[in-house]
């Protein structure tokens, strides 16, 4: 660094500014590969992270590191959980683990497919390719279901949808209820619970340290807040919420 400093006087101001920007850009690119918040800021320059977003990202990073195998994020609506958890996290996770399988579920298939399209487009972007080498397979790029060239996959489904033949290292459920009325309906709660315990749980990879993330709603109104004592475990560890 001292040798570089000695020769800086040879450069004019525009050249020094360009050098500074290049060094800063490289630093941000490297940080994006290891930090979900840095990744989000790199691929979405207008993104402004608050303290709650750093907390969400920290827990999702723990999932990616296999430190947490069951995670509940109980977050009020319109607090940016879906931007991090359903759009940026799947792309970041598959960038780091291109051979893994990811299932993303939402209250409706249309919403889940929209998330899948956003993740796919993000992974095809030039900013993403500057960070990760992961690429989508050329013959499999439907917006709700696609594979990576390294054998990984992303599959979007609505809550209640069939998952026959699909496996997952990460299963993410973002807002399992389409409305507050659904969330308060005992019948709808049972449908979601039965779908998770009967269909979803069996999709998680048994031989891997599988991860389950359930995202959405407030602790006082979200029916899944009472699930930790009722749901089967992927491993013997407790739910983190």
Oligomer: single chain
**Mean pLDDT over all positions:** 80
The CATH architecture can be named as 3-Layer(aba) Sandwich
CATH topology: Rossmann fold
Please tell me about this protein's structure.
It is a single chain. The protein is globular and about 75 Å long. It has a seven-stranded mixed beta sheet, covered by helices on one side. About 2% of the residues have low confidence. The protein is an alpha/beta fold. It has a single domain, classed as Rossmann fold (3-Layer(aba) Sandwich), CATH 3.40.50. 43% of the residues lie in helices and 15% in strands. The N and C termini lie far apart (45 Å). The protein contains nine helices and seven strands; from the N terminus they run ααααβαβααββββααβ.
Tag the structure with descriptive keywords.
single chain; 241 residues; alpha/beta; Rossmann fold; 7 strands
Summarize the structure.
By secondary structure, the chain is of the alpha/beta class. 43% of the residues lie in helices and 15% in strands. It has helices at 2-6, 13-32, 36-43, 51-64, 81-96, 109-123, 126-131, 180-184, 186-200; strands spanning 70-73, 101-106, 136-142, 145-148, 153-158, 170-174, 211-215.
């Amino acid at each position: 660094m001292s040798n570089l400093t000695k020769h800086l006087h040879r450069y004019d101001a525009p050249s020094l500014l360009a050098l500074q920007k290049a060094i800063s850009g490289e630093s941000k690119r490297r940080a994006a590969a290891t930090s979900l918040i840095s990744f989000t800021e790199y691929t979405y320059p207008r993104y402004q992270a608050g303290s709650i977003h750093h907390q969400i990202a920290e827990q999702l990073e723990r999932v990616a590191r296999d430190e947490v195998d069951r995670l509940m994020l109980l977050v009020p609506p319109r607090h940016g959980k879906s931007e991090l958890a359903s759009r940026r996290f799947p792309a970041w996770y598959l960038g780091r683990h291109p051979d893994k399988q990811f299932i993303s579920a939402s209250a409706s298939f249309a919403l889940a497919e929209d998330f899948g399209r956003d993740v796919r487009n993000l992974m095809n972007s030039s900013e993403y390719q500057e960070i990760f080498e992961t690429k989508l397979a050329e013959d499999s790029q439907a917006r709700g279901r696609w594979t990576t060239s390294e054998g990984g996959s992303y599959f979007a489904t609505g809550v209640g949808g069939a998952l026959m033949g699909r496996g997952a290292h990460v299963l993410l459920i973002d807002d399992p209820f389409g409305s507050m009325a659904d969330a308060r309906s005992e019948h709808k709660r049972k449908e979601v619970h039965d779908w998770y315990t009967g269909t979803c749980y069996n999709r998680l990879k048994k031989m891997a340290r599988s991860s389950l993330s359930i995202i959405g709603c407030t602790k006082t109104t979200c029916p899944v807040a009472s699930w930790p004592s009722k749901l089967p475990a992927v491993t013997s560890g407790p739910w983190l919420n």
